[in-house]
Amino acid sequence: MLRRLVAGLAAIVLVAEAAVLVLVHLVLGRTTANQSMSIAGSDPDVMSKATYAMGAGMGAFLVLCAVLTAVAALGDRPPGRPARVLLVTAAVVHAVLGVVTVALVGWPAFAATMLILCLLVLTLTLYADGRDGRSAGRDGGGSGDAPQPPPPPHGGLKPTSP
Predict the structure, then answer these.
(1) Which of 28, 79, 131, 142 would give a disulfide with 83, using CB separation of 3.0 to 4.6 Å?
(2) Inter-residue contact 42 to 162 (CB < 8 Å)
(3) Within the chain, how many helices (H) and strands (E) appear?
């Protein structure tokens, strides 16, 4: 129940973050185009279009991560390997973004970024056992097979007589 709640909350927050970042990039791109600003001789049209493209790319990436966490929450199944790679990438991006955010924007934005990072990491760790919630028994066991005996000491080697 907890992991479904966390994954669902992470999906909602990621969609909201995607919307905010797309909006910020639209404003930045429009401002760059309206001001006709040039940095070291760069073309302002290229800069504004690159800002739009970066906003669209970041938004699409975050929405994809939100869809992956929503699928995990709705099915109560752990994400597959490619989904985990994308979610770990999103977590690393949020960690780096948090450092930049606290320096440039301030502590409230840092707190929001760290909240999203915590939701991503918690989602990954709650689904880390690799079992889905429906197949686990009451005792937390996996498929119901009998437990395997421990390996013999010394790697199963038997002493030999001379």
Answers:
(1) 79
(2) no
(3) 4, 0
